[in-house]
Design a protein that fits this description.
Largest sheet: 8 strands, mixed
Order of helices and strands: EHEEEEEEEEEEEEEHEEEEEEEEHHHH
Number of helices: 6
Number of domains: 1
Strand content: 25-35%
Oligomer: single chain
Distance between the termini: 47 Å
Length: about 425
């Protein structure tokens, strides 16, 4: 690894002739780190920054100097990604530009990861990965609220790929229960690759759990690996030693629910009553302060700095946040195909709440979401035919339209714009 000191504008113009614009207050001198492996050639141009301290520190906008060593930053994390930086990987096509100005961290990204992915489309996911034009704006100085607020997009990784752990898949029972199907489980095939990631109908690749290759890409030989930034501005880290444990465990009481139908193509109706919770559904899990070392949002304060920890166990990635969330220029969180839930995954018009870990069984869809009965009537098909055509999420609208005997335009018009 070689370290050079070059003006940031020279580096940026050399590497990103067509990159997103950067802020006007970029430092005139940065360190450019070239990392070359057998698979990848990655270049990072950065100006070091710092992280805000945790909720138990009086001044949240300052850094607790006792947590900063001479070479790295807070908690020994490298300062490379705490300020302005540009990351380019010529092999994988990754292009990310991050600027920090006036208390806001802006992430401009094409959302292509800087590591290998699985094959897409695949049997569980019909979508191909494609470059995006996304921009996220997160607080650079987190404000602790002490109130856990559910979130769909938890944050964005250092490589510009978003963390979106929840799904919109459900199983609905004639006895009244509606449960959310978890992403990382063994019963339903949602087309995940070795990075616990898959692709939305828009072509956007995103993480639902820990990606070993993401960890490898940013590993600096410390136990804590900085992975990204939460939507409320706090850092997202991974502990290679598993030093921090989730506070969630499986519910011990049997499930309830009879004559239950998943919102997935060719899924059989089943009875859940009397079955043992195994993590297939969100309501299989419960949080206790007496379990593990992390709070309900998978966060903790380490040496005065509050961080969210991505874990190998449920909830994997934070489903809620304890800080104020700023505005983002990106599309609505996880916006998918027209008429689909925000993740672009699951049955059109049936979207549970935003995915907080305390939801348990998801209630019926709120007012304003699409009415499957009305859509089916508009298209002249049955609800079962509509569900079967939309099929395994994310849906292939062209295939669905062909199966229903309508045009894609007619199907999109019937589904309408995404809710919200």
């Amino acid at each position: 690894m070689t370290i050079q000191h070059l003006p940031v504008l020279a580096i940026t113009s050399l590497l990103l002739a067509s990159a997103c614009s950067t802020s006007d207050d970029v430092s005139s001198e940065t360190s450019a780190t070239d990392v070359t492996t057998a698979e990848s050639s990655t270049t990072v141009a950065s100006s070091a920054g710092s992280a805000a301290t945790g909720p138990d520190v009086a001044d949240e906008s300052s850094v607790d100097e006792s947590n900063v060593d001479a070479e790295n930053g807070v908690l020994g994390l490298p300062t490379t990604y705490l300020g302005d930086y540009t990351l380019v990987d010529e092999v994988f096509g990754t292009e990310v530009t991050v600027t920090v100005s006036d208390g806001v961290r802006t992430i401009d990204t094409n959302a292509l990861p800087n590591h290998e992915t699985g094959e897409f489309p695949n049997s569980g996911n019909p979508n191909a990965i494609s470059a995006q034009d996304a921009s996220w704006s997160f607080p650079a100085e987190p404000t602790w609220t002490g109130i856990a607020a559910d979130t769909r997009v938890s944050g964005v990784a250092l490589n510009g790929v978003k963390f979106e752990p929840g799904t919109a898949e459900t199983i609905s029972c004639s006895s009244g229960e509606t449960l959310r199907i978890e992403a990382l489980q063994g019963l339903y095939d949602l087309g995940f690759d070795m990075n616990n990631a898959h692709v939305q109908p828009t072509g956007e690749y995103h993480y639902h759990g820990i990606s070993p290759l993401l960890v490898d890409a940013f590993d600096d030989d410390s136990d804590l690996v900085l992975l990204g930034f939460a939507a409320d501005g706090h850092l997202m880290v991974y502990s290679k030693s598993g030093a921090y444990q989730s506070g969630y465990s499986l519910v011990t009481e049997p499930r309830t629910g009879t004559d239950c139908t998943p919102s997935l193509r060719n899924s059989e109706t089943i009875d859940l009553a009397g079955t043992t919770p195994d993590g297939t559904y969100t309501s299989d899990w419960e949080y206790s302060v007496d379990t593990g070392t992390l709070d309900e949002c998978n966060g903790t304060t380490i040496d005065g700095t509050y961080v969210y920890v991505v874990t190998d166990e449920y909830p994997f990635i934070s489903r809620c946040l304890f800080g104020e969330v700023g505005d983002s220029d990106a599309p609505p969180m996880g916006a998918g195909a027209p008429g689909m839930p925000a993740d672009g995954e699951g049955q059109a018009g049936v979207m549970p709440p935003a995915g907080g870990p305390n939801d348990g069984a998801a209630p019926p869809a709120p007012d304003g979401l699409l009415d499957l009965d009305a859509i089916a009537a508009t298209l002249g098909v049955t609800v079962d035919e509509l569900r079967d055509a939309l099929g395994t999420p994310p849906p292939d609208l062209e295939a669905a339209a062909a199966q229903l005997g309508v045009t894609v335009d007619e199907l999109q018009e019937a589904l309408g714009p995404p809710p919200g």
